[in-house]
Design goal:
Blueprint: E1 5-6, H1 16-21, H2 32-49, E2 55-58, H3 62-73, E3 79-84, H4 87-99, E4 102-107, H5 116-125, E5 131-135, E6 137-138, E7 143-144, H6 147-155, E8 160-164, H7 176-179, E9 183-187, E10 199-203, H8 205-211, H9 223-231, H10 241-257, H11 259-279, E11 293-297, H12 304-314, E12 317-318, E13 320-321, E14 330-334, H13 341-357, H14 366-375, H15 377-383
Parallel strand pairs: 1-12, 3-4, 3-5, 5-8, 8-9
Antiparallel strand pairs: 2-10, 6-7, 9-10, 11-14, 13-14
Bound molecules: pyridoxal-5'-phosphate.
Length: 384
Amino acid sequence: MKKNYLFTPGPTPIPEEVLLEMAKPIFHHRTPQFRELLAETNQLLKEVFQTNNHVYTFASSGTGAMEAAFVNIVSPGDEIIVVSGGKFGARFVEFAQVFGVISHTLDVPWGASVDIHEIDSLLRQHPNVKAVFTSLCETSTGVCFPVEDIARIVRGTNAVLVVDAISGLCADVLKTDEWGVDIVIGGSQKGLMTPPGLSFLTLSQKAWALAGTSRLPKYYFDIKKYRKAGDACDTPFTPATGLVIALRKALGLIVAEGVQVCNERHARLARATRAAMEALGLRLFAERPSNALTAVKIPDQLDAKTFITYLRDELGAVMAGGQGQLKNKIFRIAHLGYQNEFDLLGGIGAVEKALLHMGHTFDLGAGLKSFQMMINSDTLVNIQ
Ligand SMILES: *Cc1c(COP(=O)(O)O)cnc(C)c1O
């Protein structure tokens, strides 16, 4: 009997309580019932995004909110800085090309972190830069960028800092207001434990001031329409009601756990997963690894496609391969969202079984043991 387990960095598993919310009858959105749902959801979103500013919700995948962030703050011919160290960072550079904006791109080798002094010197070289775009977790490489340090630099300039936290949110620490991050972008199908289809955007006052000057065309993603409707606890267009109902439940679970505790759970799972992979003789890919996922190099003698397909089709453990230049070079295990240590023990067991199947030489059980040692290190110290 095959069971399926999602270890992908989006979509992620959905808690049963959240799934059941979506089985309830649909109701109309221009009603007090919906306004109450929205008000409650918005309050929970602020807690999870760690901001006092409003968090706006779009009916789109994460990329919609990335595009919304872009088109609402810049104008044709404007200059921006993009920290691009993977597929998702590169998406902002693609926006710049499409919308006629000049990107001073900081090309970070995939898998590496960013040297913040380079951002500082780019900002000094280009004092007219309107915005700096970066990811929190660059999902294609598993790197977590040092957003707190980047924010410290950008805060002292006229530029706004835009952070794509679609996969990082809930897993990696992100103190939006405390660090002075101006715009945070989120998506429903990653740490937020909700199906794909919603994206999020929050803007600081500094970002709103810039939004007032933006001349790029926009209609569905015009943030001013959302602000106007939001003041009346409403939405400018039909909201994805069924997903918002699910989201409220999922956010409630996150807030009940506590955002910090949730971050710590992800950190523990990430640390133990990395230890497990190294114990199997595998090499890690990310220089500054995210808590959302672990990127692992695939040994040369192993056929990447066969490995990942075997995991998915024979074992039911769905993991992600590499994207773009990393195709067939890495695989990625997510420990993101609704995951605990026993889920990951299953995932690591599956990796061991797939390695065994492919005739790879390693110490069977070493990954599981290492994971157990690391995840239980507090208890083991107490016993000694
Ligand atoms: C998943 C992801 C996106 C894209 O989200 P879609 O929902 O596929 O549009 C963007 N950025 C990062 C960092 C992601 O992990």
